[in-house]
């Protein structure tokens, strides 16, 4: 993976606190186009908060995040930094797809209905075009034959693959995954990781929070280990997973042996 050129995501000194709790204590991370970055780290280390900051769901207190060269949540005007109004934030958020542990599909819509909902309802794209794209995406995630099913008729793994197709239907520049397989029965984890592996092979830029070490090893271009609100180690999968330099990384990985 080459890392020349402008990063798609660039985080510098990102800080975020909730009341007295300092959750992010200066996070620096670059993600280049086409790169897959896996974030590992213990529960409570700030992984979800960081993804939420990248996706404008939380406003950072200090530092900066840019996505495709644009500041997230702020703008520079007249030499000063201003908070962006919510309306503008919502618009930039559409360029980023996010997949959570809990898929939250619309229960009253079919699979196809779920996938086309935002492009048609929010972006006002022509329905026929979106349906065509949605069918291609459902084919991509292996669910072409489920287009007319309802979420309750699907397994958890199938529902999560619909959630991935739904996010992709917005044609995001970047996909964020927050423990997408953590809520699944073990036998369903593989199909979701397989879909994510296919997306990575297609060149999609992805940031993935997961505890699936084998996925990190096989798919990630870079693995970062987060602990206590900072990135304490970053490198290739071989560097971080096989030869971790930091004792906290070593202690964390020892749990998976
Ligand atoms: P991780 O995803 O690594 O498990 P999180 O980013 O979810 O960690 O949480 C980091 C810390 O921030 C935790 O202590 C959590 O309780 C706290 N936290 C997260 N979101 C909020 C919030 N909205 N209000 C208060 N505390 C929060
Ligand atoms: Mg989390």
From TrEMBL:
GO cellular component terms given for this protein: plasma membrane
SMART domains from the UniProt entry: AAA
Coiled-coil zones: none
UniProt keyword Cell membrane, yes or no: yes
Keyword hit for Transport: yes
Membrane topology: Peripheral membrane protein
Gene Ontology molecular function: ATP binding; ATP hydrolysis activity; ATPase-coupled polar amino acid-transporter activity
EC number: 7.4.2.1
EC primary class: translocase
InterPro entries, per the entry: AAA+_ATPase, ABC_ATPase_HisP-typ, ABC_transporter-like_ATP-bd, ABC_transporter-like_CS, MetN_ABC_transporter-like, P-loop_NTPase
Pfam families (alphabetical): ABC_tran
Domain ABC transporter residues, every copy: 9-253
Superkingdom of the organism of origin: Bacteria
Chief localization: membrane
Reaction(s) catalysed by this chain's protein: a polar amino acid(out) + ATP + H2O = a polar amino acid(in) + ADP + phosphate + H(+)
UniProt keyword annotations, A-Z: ATP-binding, Cell membrane, Membrane, Nucleotide-binding, Transport
Location within or outside the cell: Cell membrane
Protein name listed in UniProt: ABC-type polar-amino-acid transporter
Species this protein is from: Micromonospora viridifaciens
């Amino acid at each position: 993976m080459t890392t020349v050129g402008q990063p798609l995501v660039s985080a510098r000194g990102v800080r975020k606190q909730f009341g007295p709790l300092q959750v992010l204590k200066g996070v620096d991370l670059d993600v280049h186009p086409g790169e897959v970055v896996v974030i590992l780290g213990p529960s409570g280390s700030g992984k979800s908060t960081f993804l939420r900051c990248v996706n404008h769901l939380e406003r950072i207190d200090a530092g900066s995040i840019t996505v495709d060269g644009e500041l997230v949540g702020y703008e520079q005007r007249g030499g000063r930094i201003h908070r962006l109004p919510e309306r503008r934030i919502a618009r930039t958020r559409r360029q980023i797809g996010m997949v959570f542990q809990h898929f939250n599909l619309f229960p009253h819509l079919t699979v196809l209905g779920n996938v086309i909902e935002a492009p048609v309802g929010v972006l006002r794209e022509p329905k026929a075009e979106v349906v065509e794209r949605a069918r291609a995406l459902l084919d991509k995630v292996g669910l072409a034959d489920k287009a007319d099913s309802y979420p309750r008729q699907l397994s958890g793994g199938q529902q999560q693959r619909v959630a991935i197709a739904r996010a992709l239907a917005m044609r995001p520049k970047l996909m964020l995954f927050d423990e997408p397989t953590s809520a699944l029965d073990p036998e369903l984890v593989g199909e979701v990781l397989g879909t994510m592996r296919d997306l990575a092979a297609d060149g999609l830029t992805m940031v993935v929070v997961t505890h699936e070490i084998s996925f990190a090893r096989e798919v990630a271009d870079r693995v970062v280990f987060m602990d206590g609100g900072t990135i304490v180690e970053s490198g290739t999968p071989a560097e971080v997973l096989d030869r971790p330099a930091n004792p906290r990384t070593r202690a964390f990985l020892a749990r998976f042996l």
